Amino acid sequence: MKKIILAAVAVFGFAFAANAQDGDKATGQTAKGKWLIEANTGNAVLGTTGIYFTSVDGESTFNIGLDGGYFVMDDLAIKAGLGYGSNSAADTNIFSYRLGAKYYVKSMIPVTLDLTGSSIKDAQENPMWLGIGAGYAWFIGNNVSIEPGLRYNVSLNEDFTDEGVLQFNVGFALHF
Fold first, then answer.
1. Global pTM value
2. Which parts of the chain register pLDDT below 70?
3. Distance CA 19, CA 62 (A)
4. DSSP letters for 42-82
5. Which residue among 10, 49, 51, 53 has its CA within the 20 to 30 Å range from the CA of 43?
6. Count of domains in the chain?
7. Among 84, 140, 130, which residue's Cα sits nearest to residue 108?
């Protein structure tokens, strides 16, 4: 697992260094000093800051959450997120959090690296994930982007699960 974490850090660092040497200045939505608020589709397995709802055989599970970020330099946002969810069958409440960074390669290809965790009511073990993802930012206006992408989450708590999770997400972001 240490090799996977080191590989994720190396990929993110390489993407950051490669674009930093470009000399291009970001303008518009991903420029230094801008703010980012986003909502993403989520996955019930992870405990997440995303948005989802499922209902199967009378059992309902939902989550609602948002991520926010600040561009500390052109194309690089430091992010934090919070989420709250519930499962009707297990009578469980879930509080989730996320800390990480999002880097826009060429101001349009978001690459993320973050830590996501959850606190589950009455659970003996809580999940924690290291996630890395990439996608495409489709800017549909001065302040709005739609960002489909793939992300892989590595479990950092082997007592909860030792399996990784691959996700397809669609994010909706406001830039101001």
1. 0.80
2. 1-27, 43-47
3. 38
4. --TTT--SSBEEEEETTEEEEEEEEEEEEEEETTEEEEEEE
5. 10
6. 1
7. 140
> Is 122 within the bounds of a domain?
yes
With beta carbons less than 8 A apart as the criterion, state whether 86 and 92 touch: yes
Residue 106 lies in a domain: yes
- Tally Cβ neighbours within 10 Å of residue 40: 26
Vertex 162: Cα angle to 157 and 167 (nearest 5) = 95
173: left (phi over 0), alpha (psi -120 to 50) or beta: beta
Neighbours of 68 (CB within 10 A): 16
- Tell me, yes or no, whether 31 lies in a domain: yes
Those residues with Cβ within 8 angstroms of residue 39's Cβ, 6 or more apart along the chain or in another chain: 50, 51, 65, 66, 67, 171, 172
In a domain, 165, yes or no: no
The DSSP bridge partners found for residue 138 are 146
Domain that residue 56 falls in: 2-129+170-175
Q: What six digits make up the tokens of 74?
A: 């052109």
How far from chain centre, in Å, is Cα 109?
14
Q: For tokens 């993802």, name the residue.
A: 133
SS3 of residue 130 by DSSP = strand
Neighbours of 164 (CB within 10 A): 14
What are the pLDDT digits (tens) for 61-91? 899 999 999 999 999 999 999 999 998 887 8
Tokens, residue 161: 């699960």
